[in-house]
Amino acid sequence: MKGLVEVVRGTGLSTLSSILEETEETEEEYRQKDYEITSEWEAKVAAHKVFRNVAKTGSKYIDEDDLLRFLKKEEVDNFILLFEGASATGKIKRSVFWKWLVKVYKERKSLVHSLNDTKTAIEELNKLVSAVLVLVMIVAWLLVMGFLSTQVLVFISSQILLVGFMFGSTAKTVFEAIVFVFVMHPFDVGDRCVIDGIQMVVEEMNLLTTVFLRYDNEKIFYPNSVLVGKPISNFCRSPEMSDSVEFSVDVSTSMDEIGAMKDRIKGYLESKPQYWRPAHSVLVLGIEDMNKMHMGLYISHTMNFQSGERGGRISDLMVEMKKIFEEVGIKYHLPPQEVHVRYVGGLTANAAGSGAVLPPPR
């Protein structure tokens, strides 16, 4: 583990620009030209350089012919699958390439932080175990050498029991934290989790505490002994996740309009294979007060919710559904309300006494 940590910490996320500019240079020259990416801005700069050196002059995308200059056919086929929308067109857009390289940088950064925190936790545990072993070895050595009599041993045992009684809860907390970090280990640094209904990202893991970063960048510290008994939802370790959008239409909406709406929604989902799986369903959930029909659209993402892109995808889907409703003519009307108007004679008399002129009753 220590060797792995040193390797990851000691090596940077390198760019391929130097290789692409001069393929005949030696490995030593490449290492001298190479540099480490330490920020998201540097990752974007590196992506720009790589794209400029791989793509044709003035081109806005990288195609298979560009990649075949540096990779084998099998490697190109596997490489294109990493980019959004490239598998269908065979072309990698500039914005998609930038986004991919920044994502790689963030994943590597999370890996480095995770390894560093694991190393720190192991070092803390090592110190704790070493202290206990030293104490046990001292007592055993004194017993073997005959320096401890029975009375002294009984006295030391009583003191140990007293200390155990005083710090029993602390020992229990430490033991639960060790079990949580090294046995359960429900998340790593960078994972997006939901705890107590709050969505947070793991910022730092220690032996006794874990630091989370909330959506508003507020840091929340949780004792690991408390997290042991809490249900934790981990988006990063989840498979492709599903979602739903519920809406209501007027009960008078015709079946032709509902069918047209379903076809339009299906066409939209199939036009975005990088975002949505084609399998989906539009169901009627119920009818309320004979004027409102509740419906639900159930779709599957091509990802889990670790990247935080769910909100943007759902927003685009809702905007598209609004367009579909407008174009198909699906609306919702509030039911008519009866209004009762009653003539009150006393009001007329009072108004007449005050000198007001009222129209004659009909």
From TrEMBL:
Segments passing through the bilayer: 128-148, 160-183
Gene Ontology annotations for the cellular component aspect, listed alphabetically: plasma membrane
Lineage: superkingdom: Eukaryota
BP-aspect Gene Ontology terms: detection of mechanical stimulus; monoatomic anion transport
Principal location class: membrane
Database matches in SUPFAM superfamilies: Sm-like ribonucleoproteins
Domain called Mechanosensitive ion channel MscS: residue spans: 179-235
Pfam family, one: MS_channel_2nd
Location of this chain's protein in the cell: Membrane
Membrane topology: Multi-pass membrane protein
Any GO molecular function: mechanosensitive monoatomic ion channel activity
Record's keyword terms, sorted: Ion channel, Ion transport, Membrane, Transmembrane, Transmembrane helix, Transport
Gene3D superfamilies: 2.30.30.60
PANTHER family attached to this UniProt entry: MECHANOSENSITIVE ION CHANNEL PROTEIN, MECHANOSENSITIVE ION CHANNEL PROTEIN 5
Protein family membership: Belongs to the MscS (TC 1.A.23) family.
Protein name, UniProt field: Mechanosensitive ion channel MscS domain-containing protein
Protein's organism: Linum tenue
Origin organism lineage: Eukaryota, Viridiplantae, Streptophyta, Embryophyta, Tracheophyta
